[in-house]
Amino acid sequence: MSEDAILTEAAGGIATITLNRPDKLNAFTADMLTTLRRTLEQADADKAVGAVILTGAGRAFCAGQDLSERAMSMQDGGGPPDLSVTIGEYYNPLIRTIRGLQLPVVCAVNGVAAGAGANVALACDIVIAARSASFIEAFCKIGLVLDAGGSYHLPRLVGRARAAGMALLGDRIDAEKAAEWGLIWQCVDDEELMTATGDIARQLADGPSQGLGRIKQALNASLTNGLDEQLDLERDLQKICGESDDYREGVMAFMEKRKPDFGDR
Ligand code: T3D
């Protein structure tokens, strides 16, 4: 697998990462998962980057794990694969990376997102989908359990009833319904997808990066914290934010009735 299965472009403080195996609907291989994770980590370490866009090339966002790799090894009489290895070594670290990045990740779902492809999208901070896109928790059709964080994020996003329907039936949920259910942030016309995504990424990249990173941290923690722990965390994070240059600039700009300038990206 060449590095080309993951394309990266950085401009104006926004890193755009494109899954690029369009003939296989951008299905994940192990190399792709490793490169994707490394690329996200590099973007997070780059002070010139303020937001990440993740999207897919061609007509799909991502069809999940490349099943031809699995079929080949089973046909070759190699016995059943130990899927805990791919999950433990590739998918789990990727989801932890997406959730743990300080940078906001905006996912532009340009077409079908199935299996781990859907769940990687749902791990991102803001998900915008083209009207023709759809989400399929395809695992139940091949005898697998939701992975790539799906069993964690899905019920939290849409509630148990809808999560169970999606997971057990594997129905295709179109982008409009996904937005109506709160699975994603927004559904836009196909031709507007990259402009709408770019506008949101621009707003985030121009924003107060430390504050945005702490918001992400607080929202992540709220999924498991009780109210008391969360209130304590808000206090501690607000202390850090209150000491930042961005906060000073935000308040001064408000008082001076001007647009805040949080630094060039
Ligand atoms: O194994 C582990 O490590 C465990 C981890 C598992 C994580 C997972 O993601 S498991 C779930 C894997 N994904 C799926 O089960 C989805 C499989 N794909 C589909 O159900 C359909 O392709 C779609 C609903 C996504 C799209 O359908 P459609 O009709 O628009 O396209 P198509 O004709 O099915 O696919 C187009 C081509 O892409 C086709 O190749 P061909 O015949 O033109 O040479 C198809 O085989 C290929 N393709 C689609 N999905 C995959 C794939 N090739 C390999 N792996 C795929 N997942």
In short:
The protein has helices at residues 30-45, 67-75, 83-100, 116-123, 150-158, 160-169, 175-181, 193-205, 209-222, 227-242, 245-255, and strands at 6-11, 14-19, 51-56, 60-62, 105-109, 112-114, 126-130, 134-136, 172-174, 186-188. It has 265 residues and is of the alpha/beta class. It folds into two domains: 3-205, 2-enoyl-CoA Hydratase, Chain A, domain 1 (Alpha-Beta Complex), CATH 3.90.226.10; 209-255, Lyase 2-enoyl-coa Hydratase, Chain  A, domain 2, CATH 1.10.12.
Descriptive notes:
The chain folds into two domains: 3-205, 2-enoyl-CoA Hydratase, Chain A, domain 1 (Alpha-Beta Complex), CATH 3.90.226; 209-255, Lyase 2-enoyl-coa Hydratase, Chain  A, domain 2 (Orthogonal Bundle). Strands 1-2-3-5-7-10 form a six-stranded mixed sheet, with helices on both faces. Strands 4-6-8-9 form a four-stranded mixed sheet. By secondary structure, it is of the alpha/beta class. It is globular, with a radius of gyration of 19 Å. Helix 5 packs across helix 6 and helix 9 packs antiparallel against helix 10 (227-242). The protein contains eleven helices and ten strands. It has helices at 30-45, 67-75, 83-100, 116-123, 150-158, 160-169, 175-181, 193-205, 209-222, 227-242, 245-255, and strands at 6-11, 14-19, 51-56, 60-62, 105-109, 112-114, 126-130, 134-136, 172-174, 186-188. Strand 1 and strand 2 (14-19) form a beta hairpin. Bound molecules: ligand T3D. Ligand T3D is lined by residues 24-25, 27, 63-68, 70, 83, 86, 112, 114-116, 136, 138-139, 142, 144, 147. Ligand T3D binds next to helix 2, helix 3 and strand 6.
